[in-house]
Amino acid sequence: MTETLDPAAPPPAMPIRVEFCGEIYDIAPDREFTIGREADLVIDENPYLHRQFLVLRYEYGMWWLANVGNLLSATVTDPSGQVQSWLAPGAKLPVVFQDLQVMFSAGSTTYDFSLHSDADVFNTSHINTSPGGNTTQDVVHLTSSQRLLVIALAEDVLRSVAPGRGEIPSSADAAKRLGWTLTTFNRKLDNVCEKLDKFGVSGLRGGRGNLATNRRARLVEYAVSTRLVTQEDLPILEEAQRESRRQPARPSGTGPDSTAAIPTSAAAAPHVVPAQRRTGADFAPGRRAPDAG
Predict the structure, then answer these.
(1) Which of 265, 234, 11, 242 has the alpha carbon at shortest distance from 121?
(2) How do residues 16-54 score in pLDDT, each as one tens digit?
């Protein structure tokens, strides 16, 4: 006798895997899995990190990722970098891709881990536009120096072989790495954040409380998760540093213009900004370090 499958029946529950710093955690559907400073997955002892920040749970026939913290947000992207969601405190989203990358920052440190599932509810494909098509893509153009700035901030994260953690340099350290003055670096950081903010990227600009650390951290999260910069861009940074050393000394208080000390291989390249799904209330960066669950 042939068994008849009910098309309306929910799919069978499947486990999900969490990858962090080269370790794999298999999570069964009948349990919750917490992520934070004092959780099932201990990310770090960073006091800026919630004791329990994120929770994985299986309900309504699928896995969900919930933000149970009250200050920090997380950036969730698919492998292509085309689909991005900003998971604000109190919000949750379904895990609908086989592979997801989750990034978040606490203080000056950025962390990331991966989710892997056998269930594949949605897939993404690259969209190629034509002059006569109806599909519109927003393209943001970064100058060579703006691109270098982003690479310098994301360098430690990009050098990570497996999902884990990376330190975000201070503005002074990043400026020194590039051979720029601090004034030049801050001006270019302002320009990059303003440009991406106009394209709908959240968390890069704001009023009172939007401190520099949070702005740099959010920029790194966005740039790495959407593949705005990748490991393949790291040689550009090294080449720019060598070029800067060959440049004659400049008078005090001056810095490079948009093309000075930038190698020709670091030519400006357009970047397609993915559609962003804003989830939950707006994140308020720059608050004091959370030290509560």
Answers:
(1) 11
(2) 999 998 899 999 999 999 999 999 999 999 999 999 999
Instruction: Calculate the CA dihedral of residues 181, 183, 187, 190 and round it to 10 degrees.
Output: 110
pLDDT at 57: 94
| Residue-range domains of the chain with CATH | 16-117 (2.60.200.20), 139-273 (no CATH)
Residue 292 banded pLDDT, cuts 50, 70, 90: very low
Is 239's pLDDT higher than 80? Answer: yes
Q: What single-letter amino acid sits at 132? A: G
Taking the C-alpha atoms of residue 264 and residue 159, their distance in angstroms, rounded to an integer, is 23
| Distance linking the first and last C-alpha atoms of the chain | 54
**Closest to 223 in 3D by CA, of 32, 125, 77:** 77
Q: What is the C-alpha separation between 195 and 154, in angstroms, rounded?
A: 18
Residues across the chain: 293
Tell me: pLDDT of 255 over 80.
no
CA distances from 4 to 1, 9, 191 (A): 9, 11, 60
State the Cα–Cα distance between residues 234 and 242, nearest whole angstrom. Answer: 13
Q: Is the pLDDT assigned to residue 266 strictly greater than 80?
A: no
Question: CA of 128: how far to CAs of 76, 125, 132, 134, 272, in Å?
Answer: 23, 10, 12, 11, 11
Q: Tokens at residue 74, please?
A: 């997380």
